[in-house]
Specification:
Strand order of the largest sheet of chain A: 1-4
Structural class of chain B: mainly alpha
CATH topology of chain A: 434 Repressor (Amino-terminal Domain)
Strand content of chain B: 5-15%
Oligomer: heterodimer
Number of strands of chain A: 4
Helix content of chain B: over 70%
Largest sheet of chain B: 2 strands, antiparallel
Radius of gyration of chain A: 14 Å
Number of domains of chain B: 1
Chain lengths: 77, 158
């Protein structure tokens, strides 16, 4: 049996649009580049814990309201 | 494009031009822009080899100074964040493995040529001073070119 890597999903885009913020505004608020915010929204890049906490704090949300970890599939080798 | 992508693109152009320069100086074959380039290494005097090496070094240094001066201003406005540093580390890894692979290719080529050499003319004979210079500079420049391409690709994929 082997467990494949899980994936981190996020609600960054949804929360950002709710507040009417641009990617650049969010990027400036958390000290990242606009391209990084775009990559996180598209789930191409998983942020470090520090940046993930800064993002959650920018939305005034708990960490787990913004990020969700989904286990990988468990399959036979 | 971010400053990091601009720098990668400029470095690909610089190292690509330098690679072309040393191949034009040290090899013979087809003629491009009045300069020959191919798989036959041209033996040259030590003075001319030294001139080629120093000229490549001077061009690389001037090119790097220009790139860094231009990019440094942009990077001050938008410094690299964690994703860009992650991409830089990944690109360094790709460049390292490329360099390692290229060195082993050169070693393999030299050993196989020595083992199975039959005719007088060997394509890319790396055993002469000009051949050694060509092989080492090609590996170094190739590493930098691959680092640039890896940086650009990772910015699109990551």
């Amino acid at each position: 049996m082997s467990r494949e890597d899980g994936k981190v999903h996020n609600r960054i885009r949804e929360l950002r649009l709710e507040r009417g913020w641009s990617q650049q505004e969010l990027a400036d608020a958390v000290g990242a580049s606009r391209q990084t915010i775009n990559a996180i929204e598209q789930e191409k890049y998983s942020p470090s814990l520090e940046l993930a906490f800064r993002l959650a704090r920018a939305f005034r949300k708990e960490f787990e309201e913004v990020f969700r970890y989904v286990d990988g599939e468990v399959g036979k080798r | 494009m971010s400053p990091q992508e601009n720098r990668a693109a400029a470095e690909i152009a610089l190292w690509g031009a330098l690679l072309l320069f040393i191949w034009m100086r040290l090899t013979d074959g087809i003629v491009i822009l009045g300069q020959s380039l191919g798989t036959v290494i041209v033996e040259q005097s030590p003075g001319r080899l030294l001139w080629t090496y120093v000229a490549a070094g001077v061009i690389a240094a001037i090119g790097q100074l220009i790139i860094r001066a231009v990019v440094f201003r942009k990077e001050k406005e938008t410094p690299a964040d964690e994703r860009e540093r992650f991409i830089e580390r990944k690109a360094d890894q790709v460049a390292y493995w490329t360099g390692l692979g290229a060195v082993h290719l050169v070693i393999g080529h030299v050993l196989l040529t020595a083992l199975f050499k039959r005719s007088g003319v060997v394509a890319l004979d790396f055993t002469s001073p000009a051949g050694i210079l060509l092989a080492l500079l090609t590996v170094l420049f190739l590493q930098e070119i691959v680092r640039g391409f890896a940086t650009l690709t990772l910015h699109r994929r990551t």
